[in-house]
Amino acid sequence: MDSIFIRTSVRDFEDRVVEPHKIEKLLRAAMAAPSAVNQQPWEFYVVQNPVKLQEIAAASPYAGPVLKAPAAIVPCYDKKRLAAVEYADIDMSAACENILLEAEQQGLGAVWLGIAPIRERMDKVAVAICLPENLAAFAIIPFGYPVGKKAQQDRYDTSRVHYI
């Protein structure tokens, strides 16, 4: 699976719309993620409206890449669907990673912008996209066609591997 070894965080995007079938593949990849006790707590909001993209970018001081992207996915978890509450963040993280890997596979770029567990940021995104009370915004993932491509750095470090 080469995507793991070539994926980078992309923060600059071409002014080009991403095709609906590619967006669907990102969402399918997200929903293929493992989850604790198969709770699948996720729902995904695809934001393409430029005004809404500006609003969610304002939710975090680190969300500038949203302003450069043609679209963003806001992964949310349903608080009523949590059979294993303590694993919600892990489930959502697996779904986010799958989106990033699928974006790379399709020739797209994306970056994971964490907003959870900072309630103020989560609430700002929730207001911007009109989330119902039962949903909590977890992250913002702007995506699109990348401007340029950089190589992923090799992070393998044998000093961090221990065999028992």
Structural description of this entry:
The protein has 164 residues and is an alpha+beta fold. The chain has one domain: NADH Oxidase (3-Layer(aba) Sandwich). The protein contains 5 helices and 6 strands. Strands 1, 2, 3, 4, 5 and 6 form a 6-stranded antiparallel β-sheet that branches. Helix 2 packs antiparallel against helix 4.
SSE blueprint and pairings:
Elements: H1 3-6, H2 20-31, E1 42-47, H3 50-57, E2 71-78, H4 88-105, E3 109-110, E4 113-114, H5 119-128, E5 135-137, E6 139-144
Antiparallel strand pairs: 1-2, 2-5, 2-6, 3-6, 4-6
Helix pairs in contact: 2-4
Average pLDDT over all residues: 96
Percent range of helical residues:
25-40%
* Main sheet: strands, sense, barrel: 6 strands, antiparallel
Write down the CATH class: Alpha Beta
Question: What is the string of helix and strand elements?
Answer: HHEHEHEEHEE
- The name of the CATH topology is NADH Oxidase
In the CATH hierarchy, the architecture is 3-Layer(aba) Sandwich
**Morphology:** globular
SSE class? alpha+beta
Q: What is the rounded Rg?
A: 16 Å
Number of domains: 1
Q: Identify low-pLDDT runs.
A: none
End-to-end distance: 27 Å
Strand fraction = 15-25%
Number of strands: 6
CATH homologous superfamily annotation: NADH Oxidase
Enumerate how many helices there are, as a single number: 5
